[in-house]
C-alpha cells in the first residue's frame, strides 16, 4: 500500500493508504480534509519531511522530498504531443525547402574563383602532363620490370 502524492504549484496533497476508521497524522494536519485521509500542505517550501498516518493500530510512514515551484505551468499530454508534432512538421518543411532550392542550383554554373562564363575561351593552354607519370604502353614495360611482386 502506497501514499498518493499530488503536487500542484506549491500545494502538496498526500493521501493516506488506510481506508477505514479515523485517520490521525503525525505531524498534525493544519487544514484537515473532509474524511481525514488527505494531508494538505499549502506553500510547501521543498524541505524534506517525515510524515506518518495511522488508523486502527496500523501506521504508515513516508519521507517526503518533493520539489515545487511557484511559476511552473502544468502541461498535459495533449499539449506536449502537439508541440512535438508541430516541431517535426516545421523541421520537415525546412528540409523540403532546402532540397528544392539546392536542386535548382545543381544545373547552374557558379561564378566563383576559377570558373568562366559560358562561351568564353580559355586564355592559357592546359598544363603539360609530367613525363614521370606517363601511362604504361604496350612494349614499354622494361622501365617497370624491377617492380615485380616478391614472394615471402
Question: Can you offer a commentary on this structure?
Answer:
The protein is α+β, with helices and mostly antiparallel strands. Among the domains are: 4-64; 73-104. It has one helix and six strands. The strands form two sheets. Strands 1-2-4 form a three-stranded antiparallel β-sheet, with no helix packed on it. It has a three-stranded antiparallel β-sheet with strand order 3-5-6, with no helix packed on it. Strand 5 and strand 6 (58-64) form a beta hairpin. The protein is elongated. The protein starts with a strand and ends in a 47-residue tail after the last helix.
Structural topology:
Elements: E1 4-8, E2 11-15, E3 24-26, E4 38-41, E5 49-55, E6 58-64, H1 77-105
Keywords: Cell membrane, Membrane, Signal, Transmembrane, Transmembrane helix
Subcellular location: Cell membrane
GO biological process, one term: positive thymic T cell selection
Question: Which terms summarize this structure?
Answer:
alpha+beta; 3-stranded antiparallel β-sheet; transmembrane
Proportion in β-strands: 15-25%
Q: Please describe the biggest sheet, giving its number of strands, its sense, and whether it closes into a barrel.
A: 3 strands, antiparallel
Radius of gyration over C-alpha positions, nearest whole angstrom: 40 Å
Which class of secondary structure composition applies to the elements? alpha+beta
Q: Give the terminus-to-terminus CA distance.
A: 77 Å
| Shape, principal axes of CA atoms | elongated
Seen as an oligomer or otherwise, the chain set is: single chain
The percent range for helix content is 10-25%
Tally of extended strands?
6
> What is the H-and-E element order?
EEEEEEH
Number of helices: 1
Sequence stretches where pLDDT stays below 50 over 5 or more residues: none
- Strands of the widest sheet, in order across it, are 1-2-4
Mean pLDDT: 78
Amino acid at each position: 500500500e502506497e501514499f498518493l502524492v499530488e503536487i500542484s504549484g506549491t500545494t502538496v496533497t498526500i493521501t493516506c493508504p488506510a481506508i477505514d476508521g479515523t485517520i490521525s497524522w503525525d505531524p498534525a494536519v493544519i487544514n484537515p480534509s473532509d474524511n481525514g485521509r488527505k494531508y494538505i500542505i499549502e506553500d510547501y517550501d521543498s524541505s524534506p519531511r517525515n510524515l506518518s498516518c495511522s488508523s486502527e493500530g496500523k501506521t504508515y510512514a513516508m519521507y517526503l522530498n518533493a520539489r515545487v515551484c511557484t511559476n511552473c505551468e502544468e502541461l498535459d499530454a495533449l499539449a506536449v504531443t502537439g508541440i512535438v508534432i508541430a516541431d517535426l512538421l516545421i523541421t520537415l518543411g525546412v528540409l523540403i525547402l532546402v532540397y528544392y532550392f539546392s536542386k535548382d542550383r545543381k544545373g547552374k554554373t557558379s561564378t566563383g574563383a576559377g570558373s568562366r562564363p559560358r562561351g568564353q575561351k580559355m586564355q592559357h593552354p592546359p598544363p603539360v602532363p609530367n613525363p614521370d607519370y606517363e601511362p604504361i604502353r604496350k612494349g614499354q614495360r622494361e622501365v617497370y620490370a624491377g617492380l615485380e611482386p616478391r614472394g615471402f
